[in-house]
Amino acid sequence: MSAAAPPDWVPEMIEQRGGIDRGWAHFPHAADIGVEGWGPALAVAFEQAALALTAAVTSAKVQPSIEVAIECQAPDRELLFVEWLNAVIYEMAVRKMVFGRFEVSITGNQLQGKLWGEGIDPARHEPACEPKGATYTSLRVSQSENGIWSARCVVDV
User: Which of 18, 60, 110, 145 shows the greatest Cβ crowding within 10 Å of its Cβ?
Assistant: First the structure.
């Protein structure tokens, strides 16, 4: 755990990467895992949370050799975050891929995203879990007083 989380984020962490201005963390939850991302923009927080999702699956470096585009929408930011993570999980499952690079653009309550990754190689990626879906448990999307956005929820694994 090499860096500090956003100042308003205090729960116990399992693993954390990044710094004050952007990064991601896992937080504990019974049988599932919490993911959080933060950054100077809402889109960056969503991207970082997707990296946390990938890190829950594998610690191997993911080669960004295949690009996948997705779109989703929801009535508010919290539900858009859940839709985003579920779209990533869906693409992981149906394409049998893992993603290591994300680009998000958010306009209103619509999200356009790009995912870059590769086919899962069990010997190299050694998947630790298979995410089933993002949940509303511990769901929060907010902006701190210092302008840093954070997005978090529990993912069913």
Answer: 18
The SS3 assignment for 124 reads helix
Q: Identify the CA nearest to 122 among candidates 58, 41, 31.
A: 58
DSSP β-bridge partners for residue 115: 68, 102
CB half-sphere exposure, 155, CA atoms < 13 A: 33
Six-digit token string for 66: 């295949």
pTM, full prediction = 0.87
DSSP-assigned letter for residue 76: S
pLDDT digits (tens, 9 = 90+) for 10-67: 445 555 667 678 888 878 667 789 999 999 999 999 999 999 999 999 999 999 999 9
Q: Which domains does the chain have, with CATH numbers?
A: 15-156 (3.55.10.10)
